[in-house]
Amino acid sequence: MKEQPETDSRTAAHLVYLIINVWAMTLYLPLRRQTGKDHIGITGLLSVFFIPLYATFANAPDILILLPVFITSIVMHRLGHWRRHAAGRFEHTYYGGDPWAAKLLLRCKDERKCKVLGEPVLAFCVGVLLLPYGDAVGGYFMAGALALGVSQAMLFQQDEQRLDDMRNGMIENEALMRRFHEQRKGRR
After folding, report:
1. Following DSSP, what letter does each residue of 147-164 receive, concatenated?
2. Pick from 62, 35, 31, 63: nearest CA to 50
3. Cα pseudo-dihedral 68, 91, 101, 144, rounded to 10
4. Tally of CA atoms within 13 A in the half-sphere of 123 that contains its CB
5. Residues 104-125 as b or e (16 or more Cβ within 10 Å = b)
6. CA 28 to CA 7: how far, in whole Å?
7. Is 144 exposed, middle or buried (0-12, 13-18, 19+ CB in 10 A)?
8. In this structure, how many other beta carbons lie within 10 angstroms of the beta carbon of residue 61?
């Protein structure tokens, strides 16, 4: 019985994380190229439903123009993957794509900075430009910019944790290897 509140909070955190990633994907996918074949996955599928849901609940039918743009970008990413695969060029299956728009418009060279800072800035600016067409439409991009920044920052934090785990494993294995060699010398 004591595990219930922790389970509920984890479930809520996972749901918030999923919503953030779904919202972020609706904004960044059209702004990237060369994603991995499995990157879009269930998040992309949920994103297709997220746009009409937002349009309905925010009373912003104008945002539905994003739906064909998003679906077209999914198709283009899949076609691009098949073309690269047929040519013998492979990328990590979950690669999030090259942030070409942020690199071009904001002249950022570091892919991480482009994804964590550049793309959210672009999305926010688009939101500001769209405010005259409706608060809900501009708000979608402005709030989505926050979701995009948080989503990418969380992904990079996970990468940092994985790197720390790899470093720790390397240190532990080196220590074990030294002990192994010491024991081996003692047997001779």
Report:
1. HHHHHHHHHHHHHHHHHH
2. 63
3. 60
4. 30
5. eebebeeeebbbbbbbbbbbbe
6. 31
7. buried
8. 13
CA angle 42, 67, 13 (to 5 degrees): 40
Burial class, 143, CB count within 10 angstroms (exposed 0-12 / middle 13-18 / buried 19+): middle
Distance CA 94, CA 81 (A): 12
Task: Give which of 141, 145, 154 is closest to 54, Cα–Cα.
Answer: 141
Q: What are the pLDDT digits (tens) for 108-134?
A: 888 888 888 899 999 999 999 999 988
Q: How far apart are CA 163 and CA 62, in angstroms?
A: 43
Residue 44 DSSP SS3: helix
Res. 2 pLDDT band, cuts 50 70 90? low
Predicted confidence (pLDDT) per residue in 139-187, tens digit: 999 999 999 999 988 888 988 999 999 999 999 999 999 999 988 887 7
Q: Look at the chain and count its residues.
A: 188
CA dihedral 36, 145, 117, 77 (to 10 degrees): 20
Maximal C-alpha separation, the chain: 82
